[in-house]
Amino acid sequence: MTTPSMFDPPEYQKLMRSIRAHFPGLRASMQASDEVTNAHVDHEDEAIAEALKVNILGDVGAQEIADALKRGVTGSPQTGSPAASANANADAVPESFDSCHTEDDGERAWAILENAGGSQVPASVVRAMAAYMTRSYVQIGAGYHMSTKGAITVDMAHRFVARLLNAEQTGRIILGSSASQLIYMLADCLRDTLEPGDEVVFAEAAHESNVTPWLALSRHHGIVLRNWEMDTTTMETCPVENLTPLLNSRTRVVIFPQVSNLLGTVVDVAAITKHIRARAPAAHVIVDGVAYAPHRVVDVKAWDVDYYVLSTYKVYGPHMGALYGKESAMQELQGLNHYFIPSNVPYKFEIGGSSHEGCAGLLGLIPYLKFLAKTAQCKKVEGPRGGWRDTTLDISRAEIVAAFQLMTHIERHLTRHLLKGLARLAERGLVVIGPAVDLASDAAVDARIPTVAFVSTVPNCWPSIIVRACHEKKVAIRSGHMYSWRMCEALDIDRSLGVCRVSLSHYNTTEEVDRFLAVLEKVLSEKHA
């Protein structure tokens, strides 16, 4: 008797319904039709299911999910805790899981395939933020009960992000409004450690936020900027052979993206960091993980980077950014907060403080990640329990890893399905931008995330035309340069037109991909005719 694959049609539908049920912003378009269950679902090797021991839902039911939410951001729903306050009406909890209803007009729901710009958030995040704002929305540090609860929430959010990044033993976390803001802040802090003639290396393939903060240092402080060019032939975004000539004894900063937000290819952070350490030992290694962190587990300890930045609103959380700094690297910096504030982390670096309700929302990710971990492991995962006074995080590093491993397996299936569909449209004039991928190889598929940029060679079939056609059919994608201005310039892409970008997340479905491909095929055919 063979073990059913997690991507067999019935099991796949169960898996996706259980995941999508957590996201109130997703109006499910999963249809129990022949086109979903038969025609468009590729079958994965049964070894995947065996490796994950996937019994899809296993013992995870709606009541357990509801109970996980009731436990809230820090433990069991004791009287007076934020979690208990937000979930006082238990009957209301299942409503947050109803992903099977349509919009008010009765039409098919939107397929959100523009997740690189920002992800959907689980209901647990929404509830955690609402609970904080209704029960603990006061200034922290005043010493009274509610203020102390707020302070613990903020502290635990920093600790949770540290665990998320595997940074608890190596460094500290700073929270801000976005990754771009945090890179600007970091560049400003590093300014006092740099001297005229010191060099900063930036990757041509990066988001412009990796570059602009250093331009002012170049103009006003004599810092030399070095452009780490991509390989426009192989489409490798951060080739080591192009980096080596740029490294020397004056190199003080090397900043590069772990994943291009256009091409979706993953670079080997550990190998690049080791290469930099050997040739420019005085350099700070800064990694932009914004496009990587929503899809794969982050491990700053293993990679040995000095700084790592991400956007939490792209990792299923509130609109914030997070910056990891290695302890030894941060000791060189003076924070930008008021001169009389002690030089402690993170307060000295969080001007005006972090978003308190955002911190609650970050902790609201915990029940969802635990759900994914339990689904992957097909068993109950028990963590420490307690009320809001318990400062022990209710999720282990192993659970975080398991959750992201499940995302990786789901997204491998989606990536393969998407790239196969786009390849079929090559004869209609569609060109995928980026290196070719061996779709038969799991390792090759895993070397990229499900973010794909493409253009059409059909006359007058501009990216904006394709995007408009998709939007008319309630398929959300976008066009533009996505702030990868220098990459577009290197690839001779008209920045005023840009590219089309489709970007998936683990909660997307093959049915949504097929809707997108159908619209794309139609518009290409019409323009081609």
Automatic annotation (TrEMBL):
Q: Tell me, what's a Pfam family for it?
A: Aminotran_5
Q: Which residues form a coiled coil?
A: none
At the highest ranks, the source species' classification is: Eukaryota, Filasterea, Capsaspora
| Species assigned in the record | Capsaspora owczarzaki (strain ATCC 30864)
> Which residues fall in a compositionally biased region of kind Low complexity?
83-92
> Which segments carry the region annotation Disordered?
72-104
PANTHER family linked: CYSTEINE DESULFURASE (PTHR43586), PYRIDOXAL PHOSPHATE (PLP)-DEPENDENT ASPARTATE AMINOTRANSFERASE SUPERFAMILY (PTHR43586:SF21)
Classification via InterPro entries: Aminotrans_V_dom, PyrdxlP-dep_Trfase, PyrdxlP-dep_Trfase_major, PyrdxlP-dep_Trfase_small
Provide the Aminotransferase class V domain boundaries: 113-354, 446-516
The protein, known as: Cysteine desulfurase
